[in-house]
TrEMBL record:
Span of domain Acyl-CoA thioesterase-like N-terminal HotDog: 30-109
Stretches assigned to the Acyl-CoA thioesterase 2 C-terminal domain: 157-280
Pfam family, one: 4HBT_3
Xref: CDD domains: Thioesterase_II_repeat1, Thioesterase_II_repeat2
Protein name per Swiss-Prot or TrEMBL: Acyl-CoA thioesterase II
Highest taxon above the source species: Bacteria
Family annotation (Gene3D superfamilies): Acyl-CoA thioesterase, double hotdog domain (2.40.160.210)
Length: 288
């Protein structure tokens, strides 16, 4: 297991303060606000700690209410909404400085056999066929410095985008993208760890897709970007240390908001999860 992966798992492992009350911390990476995927994953982790082990999360719906402060802990309160015969429902509120910064509702279900179907994974180049390492750095050498710093930063999650044009060209593109993604270290088959890390990485690269149609990216200083809400459906078991294809599209942007959708497939084409997110993509106004 690599050091960034160990650090990620440590961040997602919450301290229990009291029954249904947990505390999480943020890594010291110099960010001005807490990464949204971290809060999603920590809140989900808190909910899971209150649910019978045989029930896995099948969906979550969440709202980002205020920017998180990475310098202070986040306290998660779990409300046990319902424990039914087949489904369990939990609500989680994340608090900092006496105020709610995030809320999440999650539903859990014991395994059932039933109808099965899925859409087909797009036929695109596999991860080993795409530039990475020094080849990727060479492609991005003319990209803005913020983009280069992002891709060079050590992290627990590895990405291999199929196309990188939106970082370089500044052209308006069709609002969809394909990104191969995986955890950089082996975390085993534990379903809880894999589910929580999948939730964490699902917030990465997604909002950027809404800016393709405008010739911009989330790294552009002309854009104010932030996640507003995030929903996720877990369809089938997953191993996040194996490559997954994250297909994304943005059907609409309006009112300073962009809507994005994503599908996560295993390397064998199995659809493991679906994602939807609306984010703020507001043009920055010149300082007066």
């Amino acid at each position: 297991m690599t050091e960034p992966v160990e650090q990620l798992l440590a961040v997602l492992s919450l301290e229990k303060l009291e029954e249904d009350l947990f505390r999480g911390t943020s890594p010291d990476v110099g960010w001005q606000r807490v990464f949204g995927g971290q809060v999603i994953a920590q809140a989900l982790s808190a909910a899971i700690r209150t649910v019978p082990q045989e029930r896995g999360c099948h969906s979550l719906h969440s709202y980002f209410l205020r920017p998180g402060d990475p310098k202070v802990p986040i306290v998660y309160t779990v409300d046990r909404i319902r424990d039914g015969g087949s489904f369990t429902t939990r609500r989680v509120v994340a608090m900092q400085h006496g105020e709610a910064i995030f809320s999440l509702s999650a539903s859990f279900q014991r395994h059932e056999e039933g109808f099965e179907h899925q859409i087909t994974m797009p036929d695109i180049p596999k991860p080993d066929e795409l530039p990475h390492g020094e080849a990727l750095e060479e492609i991005l050498k003319n990209a803005p410095s913020a983009v280069q710093r992002y891709w060079k930063r050590p992290r627990a999650i590895e990405f291999r985008p199929v196309v990188l044009d939106h970082y370089i060209s500044g052209k308006k593109l069709d609002p969809y993208q394909h990104v191969w993604v995986r955890c950089r270290g082996e975390i085993g088959d534990d379903p809880v760890s894999n589910t929580v890390v999948l939730a964490y990485l699902s917030d990465m690269t997604l909002l950027d897709t809404a800016l393709f149609a405008h010739g911009l990216s989330v790294f552009d200083e002309r854009v104010q970007a932030a996640s507003l809400d995030h929903a996720m459906w877990f369809h089938r078991p997953v191993r996040v240390c194996d490559w997954m294809l994250y297909t994304q599209d943005s059907p609409s942007s309006s009112g300073g908001r962009g809507l994005t959708r994503g599908s996560l497939y295993g390397l064998d084409g199995t659809l493991v999860a679906s994602v939807a997110q609306e984010g703020l993509i507001r043009p920055r106004r010149p300082a007066s």
